[in-house]
């Protein structure tokens, strides 16, 4: 079952790579590097190592041979084989399935499917998503990426345990107020147009926020910013939410896990409760934004500094300095923007693009703060013209609310690529490029352990700072130990295993349903193609028979036997050339018939004439063609009888469906001519209703028959064609 989650082209690619000489050479060199480590570590067998030690030895060995020619050859082989199998798979789809998508779309879809299968198998490879920086993630990859980066099984288990123990404890005392706020927000906010009117989105958002508020155990009402911050998570899961039914418990638990993990990992300047607790972080963030503005958009900085004070205080503004004014104006302007992380300010596609970069950078230290400062400065820079028209800080804030939804993803991408890509992308890949200990100096690009001497000397710190850092390290160590103990307890229990088994069962069931559906569609397509080929062959054979008949008639007219003595026909033909022809009579048509030389039956000829040979060969060929086409079209023996019985059964079933549809739509059976007396519009509407009912019944029957070997329904005798034939309805 595990291999079914991978696309076929990826499995074929893996098989060809593992059979290549480049792979064998790589394994041989990797084995030598590991053996060298074992020798230097005085370890006799690789199996004597623990799992962590095995992983470390493998990483060191891989790093040791990474710069060599064998590794480069394997990389080229993997690249070429991946390209080959991916293009072959797309070419096969174009030839067999006749898709509506272009080749580029099919290549992207197949590559996306392969990437998703690898990420599900090895979640620790999520760091590879850093190559997608400054690009909006595809919908399927976005769902998986957010799930991997915002993963916290402890929060999910806590929520599920509360639901199992006391469902009321997962509901806030202010649940009614939260529901009303969610409904009002989804209905009034123009940037949430994609999920407006969705029952599943509303119930999922309400359930997440209600549990979030109940978990806080406070008498204060839930903050408005929390309502805004829940919207992106609901939007990402919108394709799995029903627009008419509430969300399932499993999906709500996943949203709770992602939302709470995000809320707990937010930087302090985003929390910004207004107290002095996060004042330093807010000041540092505003300082980063101001530096970007002064460097790239100086006019925007001047406009903000000019509008930050009331008109009466403009006179004394120069005493504080432009930098102080800029910091005060930015703080007032940016605070509501960053607390909601641009939710409500940007259109949904642009908003998700910003959130995608934030999520894939959660494992890179300092990236989140730098990215949000860049987006904030870029947004203000793109709004420069609108901000210049404002006369006060309030009008600037209103201009942002009104004009920011007009920004596009392409505008943000262009500014990031032009001004910030060179600084931001290395922050994401810094951990990946960090040097690892290398044991083989001949394979390394630099002497081993050299990076130890490149570290910066730590600055001098005060005793109280060192004591505080030591206490933080001890607290972190205690937290990790507690987390390890919780993980061990979870392994001993059956809750986690049951959930994993259930997830595996659901995935297996979904894969099985997909396989059965694909087999059904494939069988129907094969049946349709077989019948089409059979009809084409029969039509071609009939045309060939007609053509051969005409050729036989022409041969009979042209071939006339020669007689040694002049006959009456030859004399008559000679006289007809000399004398004028008499008026045409019915008897005169006899001369136009071919003259056939009859042979006496008493003296049969042992050998056929050349004309007889040709005629006999043609007749034999036509007889064989006719017999073959009858066998192909109608079958033989039990097969032909079974085909007739199946066809007759489908005809009776379609007639019964048509009668049943008449009763459902009109309430009675139609009389002769009753349908023709209806107006054309009513005829069309009635026909559509009946065809939908008939099609639904047919699909239900097909679904029930999937358990056994399906023989396929004759596509040339469907419910629509039968309905049109009996009622005279227009298609």
Give a structural overview.
The structure is a single chain. By secondary structure, the protein is mostly helical. Among the domains are: 2-121, no CATH class; 152-265; 267-430, Cyclin A, domain 1; 641-727, no CATH class. Helix content is 68%, strand content 0%. It has 29 helices and no strands. Helix 1 (8-18) packs antiparallel against helix 4, helix 9 (199-216) packs across helix 11 (249-265) and helix 14 (298-307) packs across helix 16. The protein starts with 7 loop residues before the first helix and ends with a helix. The relative contact order is 0.05. Residues 311-319, 433-458, 562-606 and 709-731 have low confidence and may be disordered.
Which secondary structure elements does this structure contain, and how are they paired or packed?
Blueprint: H1 8-18, H2 21-40, H3 51-65, H4 69-96, H5 103-121, H6 139-149, H7 153-165, H8 175-188, H9 199-216, H10 224-236, H11 249-265, H12 268-271, H13 279-296, H14 298-307, H15 317-320, H16 322-339, H17 348-360, H18 367-382, H19 384-389, H20 393-403, H21 409-419, H22 421-429, H23 463-492, H24 495-558, H25 568-578, H26 610-634, H27 637-666, H28 680-705, H29 719-727
Helix pairs in contact: 1-4, 2-3, 2-4, 4-5, 7-11, 8-9, 9-10, 9-11, 13-14, 13-16, 13-18, 14-16, 17-18, 18-21, 24-26, 27-28, 28-29
């Amino acid at each position: 079952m595990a291999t079914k989650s991978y696309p076929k082209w990826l499995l074929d690619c893996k098989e060809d790579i593992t059979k290549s000489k480049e792979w064998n050479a790589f394994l041989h060199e990797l084995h030598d590097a590991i053996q060298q480590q074992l020798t230097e570590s005085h370890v006799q067998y690789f199996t004597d190592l623990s799992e962590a030690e095995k992983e470390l030895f493998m990483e060191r060995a891989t790093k040791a041979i990474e710069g060599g020619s064998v590794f480069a050859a394997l990389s080229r082989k993997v690249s070429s084989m991946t390209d080959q199998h991916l293009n072959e798979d797309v070419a096969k789809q174009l030839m067999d399935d006749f898709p509506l998508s272009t080749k580029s779309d099919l290549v992207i879809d197949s590559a996306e499917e392969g990437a998703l299968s690898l990420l599900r198998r090895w979640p620790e490879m999520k760091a590879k998503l850093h190559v997608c920086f400054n690009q909006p993630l595809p919908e399927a990859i976005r769902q998986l990426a957010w799930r991997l980066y915002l993963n916290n099984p402890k929060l999910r288990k806590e929520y599920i345990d509360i639901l199992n123990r006391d469902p009321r404890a997962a509901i806030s005392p202010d649940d009614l107020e939260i529901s009303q706020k969610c409904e009002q927000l989804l209905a009034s906010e123009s940037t949430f147009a994609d999920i407006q009117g969705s029952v599943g989105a509303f119930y999922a958002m309400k359930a997440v926020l209600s549990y979030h508020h109940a978990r806080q155990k406070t008498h204060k009402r839930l903050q408005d910013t929390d309502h805004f911050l829940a919207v992106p998570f609901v939007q990402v899961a919108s394709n799995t939410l029903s627009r008419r039914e509430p969300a399932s418990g499993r999906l709500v638990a996943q949203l709770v896990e992602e939302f709470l993990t995000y809320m707990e990992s937010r930087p302090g300047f985003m929390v910004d409760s207004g107290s002095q607790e996060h004042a330093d972080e807010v000041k540092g963030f505003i300082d980063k934004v101001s530096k970007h503005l002064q460097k790239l958009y100086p006019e925007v900085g001047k406009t903000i500094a000019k509008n930050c004070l009331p008109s009466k205080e403009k006179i004394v503004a120069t005493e504080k300095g432009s930098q102080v004014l800029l910091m005060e104006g930015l703080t007032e302007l940016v605070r509501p923007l960053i607390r909601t992380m641009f939710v409500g300010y940007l259109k949904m596609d642009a908003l998700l693009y910003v959130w995608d970069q934030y999520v894939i950078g959660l494992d890179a230290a300092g990236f989140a703060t730098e990215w949000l400062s860049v987006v904030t400065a870029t947004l203000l820079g793109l709004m420069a013209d609108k901000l210049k028209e404002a006369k006060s800080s309030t009008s600037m804030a209103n201009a942002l609310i009104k004009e920011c939804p007009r920004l596009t993803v392409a505008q943000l991408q262009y500014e990031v690529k032009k001004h910030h890509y060179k600084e931001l992308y290395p922050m994401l890949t810094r951990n990946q490029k960090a040097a690892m200990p290398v044991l083989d100096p001949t394979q390394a690009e630099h002497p081993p352990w050299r990076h130890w001497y490149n570290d910066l000397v730590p600055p001098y710190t005060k005793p109280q700072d060192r004591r505080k850092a030591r206490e933080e390290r001890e607290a972190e160590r205690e937290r990790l130990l507690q987390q390890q103990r919780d993980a061990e307890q979870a392994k001993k229990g059956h809750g986690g295993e049951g959930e994993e088994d259930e997830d595996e069962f659901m995935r297996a069931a979904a894969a099985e349903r997909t396989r059965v559906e694909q087999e059904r569609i494939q069988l129907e397509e094969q049946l349709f193609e077989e019948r089409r080929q059979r009809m084409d062959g029969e039509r071609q054979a009939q045309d060939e028979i007609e053509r051969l008949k005409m050729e036989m008639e022409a041969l009979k007219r042209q071939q006339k036997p020669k007689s040694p003595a002049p006959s009456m026909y030859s004399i008559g033909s000679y006289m007809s050339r000399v004398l004028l022809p008499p008026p045409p009579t019915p008897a005169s048509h006899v001369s136009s018939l071919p003259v056939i030389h009859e042979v006496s039956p008493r003296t049969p000829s042992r050998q056929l004439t050349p004309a007889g040979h040709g005629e006999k060969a043609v007749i034999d060929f036509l007889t064989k063609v006719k017999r073959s086409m009858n066998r192909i079209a109608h079958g033989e023996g039990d097969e032909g009888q079974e085909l007739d019985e199946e066809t007759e059964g489908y005809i009776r079933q379609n007639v019964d469906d048509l009668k049943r549809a008449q009763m459902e739509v009109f309430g009675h059976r139609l009389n002769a001519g009753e349908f023709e007396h209806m107006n054309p519009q009513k005829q069309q509407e009635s026909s559509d209703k009946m065809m939908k009912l008939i099609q639904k019944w047919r699909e239900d029957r097909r679904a029930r028959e999937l358990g056994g070997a399906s023989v396929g329904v004759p596509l040339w005798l469907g419910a629509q064609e039968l309905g049109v034939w009996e009622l005279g309805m227009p298609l």
